[in-house]
Structure formats: C-alpha cells, structure tokens
Queue: 3 jobs
Job 1
Amino acid sequence: LTLAGVEVDRKVLADLAVHEPEAFGAIVDQAKAALA
C-alpha cells in the first residue's frame, strides 16, 4: 500500500472493507497495480 501511495491505517482499511467494499476494492486494485 505504501508503494501505491495509499496512506490509510489498518483500522480505516478494515472499516472500508466492511462498510464500503467498492472503495476497498478500488484501493486493492491500486495496490496490485503498483506491485505489477
């Protein structure tokens, strides 16, 4: 996540995963793209 420039802590990520799965998915996709 740091490589992708995503600066949110684990607590926020967990909250997004539960309450806003689409937003969480977008962060995951961004992180995957940074690693590719």
Job 2
Amino acid sequence: MDQSDYNQFLDVVYDSAVDPGAWPQVLRRFAELTGAESALLIQQDEQIGKGQAIRVNVDPDAAEPYYGHFATRNVLHNTKDPVETLRKWCSNAAWATCQPAWPFAEGRRNATRPFSA
C-alpha cells in the first residue's frame, strides 16, 4: 500500500463518520488493501449482548455459526459487570482507547495528540 492508497482509504474512513452508510465502502476498501476476501464490522452492547454487523462479501450461511462460536467465548459475557471488567482490564494495558482522557470520547479530534496516554 503506498501513501496515496493510505490517504484515499483514510478519506473513506473519515467520510463514514458523517455518513454511516459509507461503512460498507470502508470495509470493501480495507479488504482490498489487505488482500482479504471479506470484511466484517461488529458493534455490540456488552451489557445486553445484542449488536449488529456490517458485512462485505461474507457468506450468509457462515454468519450464524461464527456468532455462535465466538459469542460463547466472549469473556465479558461471563462477568457480573462487563463495563467494569473492561475498565479494569484496560487499566493495565497500553491501549490508548481505554484511557479516560481519550479525546474522541468528547466528540472532538485532537490533531496534536490523537491519543492521550
């Protein structure tokens, strides 16, 4: 992937922030750039276990077995308080998205420090 491919991909990702209908295009382009046959983006509420997915080139017959297999292995479903479990789990991790000072949490982008440590 060269710089122009990367920039074009980021343009599509940023477009999806204001147009949720662009997510299939993001996934399609991501699959192309990575050489994948398909792509899947899952959003799930860990407290109730319900969610939705955006699929690109995913065999519909494969979806149910996939969810059935991985849903039973989700460690957050076996805890009393999934949100607190995730908060504790991330407190020792180096994942910037788990930090409470994450600038996107307030709906704004911090261009000089995209992720707070």
Job 3
Amino acid sequence: MPKQAMEKFKRCSISINRPLIPLKLALFCFYGIGGFASPFTTLLLKQRGVTLSELSAMTIFAPIMQILGTSVSGVVSDKIGRSKPVLATNLLLLIIYKLPVVLCTPFDKMWNKSLKLLKKIDALMFMIVIFILGTLFNFTIDFCLWYLDELNASSLLIGIIPSISAVYGLPFLLTSNWWLKKLGTHQIFILALLAYVFCVLGYSVLKNPWLALALDLPNIFTYYLLWVAVIEHSHSIAPERLTSAVIVISGAVHYNAGKTTSGLIGGIVMSEFGGIMAFRLLAIICFSVFVLYTLFFILRRKHISKKHHIDQNGDSKENVKACVIFTI
C-alpha cells in the first residue's frame, strides 16, 4: 500500500451528518422493501401456479420499461427538476397500495428440512456466491453513476446506461432457457463472477465516461441470465416444498445483505481512498470467490462422476450375480 494511502488509512474516521439521518433511514426502508419485492413476487407467482417459462416471459417487461423510462430520465430531470418525478412516483405507490390483495395459505412448518438445507455444502457455496454478486450489483447500481459524475459524465449518458443494459440483456433473456441448457447453472455463476471482475477493473481504469456503455455488457450474465439460473438452481438444491423459500432467501441475500456490504465499501473505502481503490478491492474479492467456486465446481463434478462410476460398477456386478443364479 502506498505511503499516502497508509496515512489516510490511519486518519480514517466515519463522519455522521445528523440532519440526513431521517433521510437515510427512509432510503434504507425503501431499498429494503424494494429488495424483498422481487423474491416475494417470485414466491407469490409460484404459489399461484406460474411455471418457470411463464416467469421468464414476465421478466421481459422489466428491461422494456428500462429502455423506455431511463433513456429519457436524464433529460426530464434537467427540464422539470427532480422533485416532481419523485412526487409522481410516490402517488403511484399509494395507488398500488390500495389494490386488493389475495392471501395465500402458508406452507406447513419446514424446520427439519430447513436444517438439512443449511448442512448442504452446495447450498452454502450458492449463498456465498449470491452474496458477493449482490455486493457487486448494488455497488455498481449505487456508486458507478456517482463515479461517472465525478468524471463529468453528462445527464444523457447517466440516463442511457440502464437502458443500454436492458438492450444488451433482452435477447439473452428471451433465449434464457437455451443458454441455461447449454451452460448450466454453475457455469453461469462462474461467468457472472468473472464478468464482474472485468467490469470493476474496467471502471478502475476508465478515463472516457462514454466507454462505460461497454462495461454494461457483463449484465448479461450478472443479472439477466443470473436470476434464471438462481431459480433453476433453487429447484435442484432445495428440499421438498422449500424451493420458493430458497428463492426468497437468495433474493434477500443478493439485494439486502449485498446492499449493506456495498454501502460500507462505497461509504468508507470510496470516500477515503477514491473510486479506483474501491473498484480494485471489489475486483480482488470477486476474483477470490471466482477461484474458490471454480475449484468447488471442479471437485464436485469429479465427485459426482466418481460416484456415478461406482454405482454403475455395482449395478453391473449385481446383474452378473443375477445371471449366474438364473443359470443355476
């Protein structure tokens, strides 16, 4: 670590802006509710009988609205200000709040099955990967635009970036089932980790803000294909009737727990040492988890193939014994 960075680290202290505490609490609740909305929506749709293919088709509307909405948000904020769109959004939320709600019957108690799930190494590694991906996701959402603003990026560019991400991801979302069968869930998780490494390293050396449009390409793996893989992987590791609960937990870990960690990194490291140091720190963390999960995947595949080979040999020996007995 450079000498100047060490001196800054020794003087590092957290300053609290007390007048902004109510606003921060309100934003914390808002983001917390928003983070739980997506996984709980998945749980509700699952209880109502919606299949995985139908759910994938429903998620197409999100990038379409990103393309239509965020592409003009920067221009609109410059023309009419920022308070009026916020007021309109709050009024829309009040209207949604008044909509009737259909209550679904809860599942039976699944305590024993939940304990079995926690003991699975596959489920533990899955949650670690989701947590790291959530940290990177929330950091890029919250602090990349701030970083681009420091690079004197225009409001048009800041408004275009989310819509460009949707343009990149929409074709892959439409063909997500094919990609899932071609790659597999574990490979998509590995590619998502590797994509984030290149993304944050790219931001750390970024000089021209418009080149950030190319750094949104990893969202194909880190968001659009990721959640299709999460839903599919939840079916494979969850015990009976706990699939929806695993999806909800993974969403909470990704959006809420990951947001807490990204806020700490952005608030402390980025403010004290700058955005470059924060991006490089995240790249090191993500690359470490990438190596760990890749080794886990290789060892897991070898173990499964070895077990399958042993089972096949056992079946063949039993068939030989049966043939001998039948002959006698």
